[in-house]
């Protein structure tokens, strides 16, 4: 029954995708006919279909000899996804304007050409500004007071990065920048809150990205959790072994004591549907711990805040949402999650959800930015910060 529901959902999504792209294709064809009347439909439509479904084509398990072409298709398809979202927003508005002007009796002889030029200029601005938001990173600093002690009043500096999505789009260049900025924080601990991989581990290995990852330096180590994309990639065992070989521990429903603090790493929520054993509850993970010590938990998807607060977690770190990545998707994520981005205080629990460092699909962001998180955890005995000083500071890098 569950398999049938998945097939039905996938079929509906595919049908919607086909209809949306047919709508976009028709408008593009009208513009091509206006500007390049000699182009035959037999040429236009196959090219358009290949571009529109390039991302899906790239996901097919092609033979090794064809994979370089598949990687190119994934890049083309990624950028088309951004163009598709732009078209979904602005083409209906253009159609509405056309209809209103026609009702008002205006001459529409040049409408197609003028609208086409306007939309292409707007698309160029959308892509350029969105690319700037994706590659130009912000460091957000959160001072977090915790009424617990580890025997020192010195703040605990924790660097947090989520949703790197390392693969064929986000590569070594962006990764090197992250490593440099995190190391400049001189952190006590580095936490990677899931989706380090975009999906396949192949480009991570092929481009030797582990050579960059192992340059991350923290006094008390680097720790990570799995995200949904590690599960989608299907190479969790290989990934965790590779990360372990460079000194990064991937926590899967595990707790470690680090510098007098508990670091808790949950399996991603995807495990509930993709692993027979699912994942442990927060309460069972914290059972038997000395809760007079700080408890910092990573859970890739921002859910279960109440359970975390009741179990005694002090700081919950998540990502996953990208804050919608491209507006107006942030209106959707804001409705889907109790907190889709930023900071929330729930009883004694501090929740921080990052918009992520990398991108899924197109390297484009609107209404969100590539970000890294710097936590200054103020423990009992330190008077530097109070509960009222919780506004994040931002620094452009």
TrEMBL record:
SUPFAM superfamilies: Metallo-dependent phosphatases. Keywords: Membrane, Transmembrane, Transmembrane helix. Residues 157-323 form the Calcineurin-like phosphoesterase domain. It comes from the Bacteria. Signal peptide: none annotated. GO terms for molecular function: hydrolase activity. Gene3D superfamilies: 3.60.21.10. Pfam families: Metallophos. The chain crosses the membrane at residues 12-32, 38-60, 72-93, 105-130. This is Metallophosphoesterase. The lineage of its organism: Bacteria, Bacillati, Bacillota, Bacilli, Bacillales.
């Amino acid at each position: 029954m569950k398999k049938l529901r998945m097939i039905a959902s996938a079929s509906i999504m595919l049908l919607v995708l086909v209809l949306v792209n047919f709508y976009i294709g028709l408008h593009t064809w009208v513009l091509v006919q206006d500007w390049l009347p000699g182009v035959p439909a037999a040429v236009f439509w196959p090219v358009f279909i290949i571009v529109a479904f390039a991302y899906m084509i790239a996901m097919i398990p092609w033979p090794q000899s064809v994979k370089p072409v598949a990687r190119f298709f994934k890049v083309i398809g990624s950028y088309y996804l951004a163009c598709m979202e732009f078209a979904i927003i602005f083409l209906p508005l253009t159609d509405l304007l056309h209809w209103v002007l026609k009702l008002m009796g205006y001459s529409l002889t040049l409408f197609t050409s003028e609208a086409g030029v306007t939309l292409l200029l707007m698309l160029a601005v959308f892509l350029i500004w969105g690319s700037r938001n994706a590659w130009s990173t912000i460091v957000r600093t959160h001072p977090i007071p915790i009424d617990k002690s580890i025997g020192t009043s010195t703040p605990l500096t924790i660097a947090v990065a989520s949703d790197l999505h390392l693969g064929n789009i986000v590569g070594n260049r962006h990764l090197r920048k992250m490593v440099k900025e995190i190391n400049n924080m001189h952190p006590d601990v580095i936490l990677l809150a899931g989706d380090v991989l975009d999906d396949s581990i192949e480009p991570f290995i092929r481009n030797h990205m582990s050579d960059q990852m192992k340059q991350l330096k923290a006094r008390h180590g680097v720790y990570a959790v799995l995200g949904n994309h590690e599960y989608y990639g299907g190479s969790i065992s290989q990934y965790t072994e590779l990360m372990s070989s460079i000194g990064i521990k991937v926590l899967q429903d595990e707790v470690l004591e680090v510098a007098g603090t508990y670091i808790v790493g949950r399996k991603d929520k995807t495990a509930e549907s993709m692993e027979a054993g699912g994942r442990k509850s927060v309460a069972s993970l914290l059972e038997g711990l000395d809760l007079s010590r700080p408890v910092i938990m990573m859970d890739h998807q921002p859910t279960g805040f109440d359970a975390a607060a009741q179990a005694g977690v002090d700081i919950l770190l998540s990502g996953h949402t990208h804050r919608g990545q491209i507006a107006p998707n942030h209106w959707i994520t804001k409705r889907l999650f109790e907190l889709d981005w930023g900071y929330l205080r729930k009883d004694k629990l501090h929740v921080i959800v990052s918009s992520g460092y990398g991108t899924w699909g197109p390297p484009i962001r609107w209404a969100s930015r590539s970000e890294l998180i710097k936590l200054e955890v103020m423990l009992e005995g330190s008077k530097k910060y109070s509960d009222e000083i919780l506004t994040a500071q931002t620094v452009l890098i």
